[in-house]
Amino acid sequence: MSEVLKVYEQFVTEENQLCRRIETLDVIQSYILHTVHKHGPELDTLTVEDVLMSIHRIQQDLQTELIHVRLEKSVLSHKHSSPKDADIGKAKQSTAD
User: From the centroid of its chain, how far is CA 16?
Assistant: First the structure.
């Protein structure tokens, strides 16, 4: 297996892990909101809000990581799949200049 393919597979694995973590946080948020609906006044709203905002910040961080992984994966995929296309694009740009 080529080194490029190994790296690409690592990106795929990392992407899957990040997606699973984000989905898990969505489920946790839903449970919290359901619990608030069910137990309303028994819970301190500010504390619940703090917890939800903490989860939201974690989600944002994971989404940012996910964007970076997807970008790196796309760049790697492009480099691996179309080196001739990249050379053609450079040649066209040179002739246009």
Answer: 9
Token pair 């809000």: residue? 49
Query: Which residues have a Cβ under 8 Å from the Cβ of 28 and sit 6 or more positions away?
Result: 55
For residue 11, count other CB atoms closer than 10 A to its CB: 19
- Rounded distance, CA 50 to CA 40, Å? 16
C-alpha 22/C-alpha 18 separation (Å) is 6
As given in the structure block, the two tokens for residue 74 are: 């796309």
User: Using one digit for the tens of pLDDT, what is the confidence trace for 11-31?
Assistant: 999 999 999 999 999 999 999
Measured distance CA(52)–CA(44) in Å, rounded: 13
Between the CA of residue 17 and those of 37, 69, 70, what are the distances in Å?
30, 11, 12
| Contacts within 8 Å (CB) and 24+ apart, 38-45 | none
**Which tokens sit at 93?**
């740009």
As a whole number of angstroms, the distance between CA 37 and CA 28 comes to: 14
